[in-house]
Amino acid sequence: MAFLSDTLARVKPSPTIAVTNKARELKEAGRDVIGLGAGEPDFDTPENIKRAAIAAIESGKTKYTAVDGIPELKKAICAKFERENGLSYKPSQITVGTGGKQVLYNALVATLNPGDEVVIPAPYWVSYPDMVLLAGGTPVFVEGRMQTGYKITGAQLEAAITPKTKWFIFNSPSNPSGAAYSREELKELTDVLMRHPQVWVMSDDMYEHLTFGDFEFVTPAQVEPGLYDRTLTCNGVSKAYAMTGWRIGYAGGPEALIKAMGKVQSQSTSNPCSISQYAAVEALNGPQDYVAESREAFERRRDLVVAALNTCPGITCPTPEGAFYVYPSVEGCIGKTSKGGVKITDDEAFAAALLEEAGVAVVFGAAFGLSPNFRISYATSDAALTEACARIKAFCEGLK
Ligand SMILES: Cc1ncc(COP(=O)(O)O)c(C=O)c1O
């Protein structure tokens, strides 16, 4: 009898975490490495949020709470959905988990049966396909090409839906491409979904606050109220308030689904950290200055990185609408050989040689289901980004 489960054999460890670990190892070994792999803001959690957590500890809010969130936080989440997205949810339609990751996972575990399909646009966040596989479902990919801004069209979505499709996972702004759908682009997708009543929508709005210029963020249940009864609107405080380590994510959706997700959580982790929940109440209800400040910084960095990468021979980098990632194509580098003698056969070879020879850690595109590309997280200092882009340029100029 095999010790490890058959299900586990179907999934792979997160490649983004692997790149971050490799960069850390090289640094510890004394190498000069700039890590552009990690998907987290480099800013500190705002002071008012930290103070709320300290107050929670000091007033003894350190015990088990209701499994899927304290009433104060559910109330703050309802107010957030109403204020920012025009969506009305009752507290009984809200669930809170240990990060957005757990919320998405709970929903898949609570609903997928063997054979159920989940449509996932590529390039995708690395965890979606593996979460679907862990939950017993089958991921179905739809490619958003660079030419369409890494977005999929209604016709592509229509072609991917079958009678077995249970979920459509939608992520805008996207990790890894930074692509965000305008109201018109999203309406094209929701029109298709309206024709397929068996398909539920999992909208991962984690990067909602990070859109640039006058881009207007929209979410499916807002664009098409007809989808409200089969949409799970997921969000969290990790990226919006520089709270990745606090582990609070949440979602609003139909009561029966929310209850089922709570059941999964009750038999795995129980409540998310009580202290983090009180901190999240302050994040959502308190001053929102950090949100605008970080957006401004990220927009400046996006412009810096896009401009610099487009001067690198063999690289094409579109300008994304949001998040803190860019997803350049390295098509023009494929088939060449680096100064160190590495043949660039694909984006994985490109990223490996870039790390080894130039000391820049990026994540190769195949990890996100669309090649030949790589992802840069520009959630790091302007100085580090400028130096990293100079190294990438020198590396590309050295390809023969
Ligand atoms: C698209 C997307 N969804 C969800 C998450 C998970 O966020 P959390 O840290 O709250 O679990 C991430 C984190 O990288 C993400 O990029």
Automatic annotation (TrEMBL):
Domain called Aminotransferase class I/classII large: residue spans: 32-392
Q: Name one Pfam family in it.
A: Aminotran_1_2
Q: Give UniProt keywords alphabetically.
A: Aminotransferase, Pyridoxal phosphate, Transferase
Q: Which PROSITE patterns does the record match to this protein?
A: AA_TRANSFER_CLASS_1
- This chain's protein is named Aminotransferase
- Reaction catalysis annotation: L-aspartate + 2-oxoglutarate = oxaloacetate + L-glutamate
Q: What EC number(s) does the entry state?
A: 2.6.1.-
Q: InterPro entries per the record?
A: Aminotransferase_I/II_large, AspAT/PAT-like, NHTrfase_class1_PyrdxlP-BS, PyrdxlP-dep_Trfase, PyrdxlP-dep_Trfase_major, PyrdxlP-dep_Trfase_small
* Cofactor(s) it depends on: pyridoxal 5'-phosphate
Q: Name one GO biological process term.
A: amino acid metabolic process
Please name the top-level EC class of this enzyme: transferase
UniProt entry tagged with the keyword Cell membrane: no
Q: What GO terms are given for molecular function?
A: L-aspartate:2-oxoglutarate aminotransferase activity; pyridoxal phosphate binding
Q: Which organism is it from?
A: Paenirhodobacter huangdaonensis
- SUPFAM superfamilies to which the protein is assigned, alphabetical: PLP-dependent transferases
The record describes its quaternary structure and partners as: Homodimer.
> Which protein family is it in?
Belongs to the class-I pyridoxal-phosphate-dependent aminotransferase family.
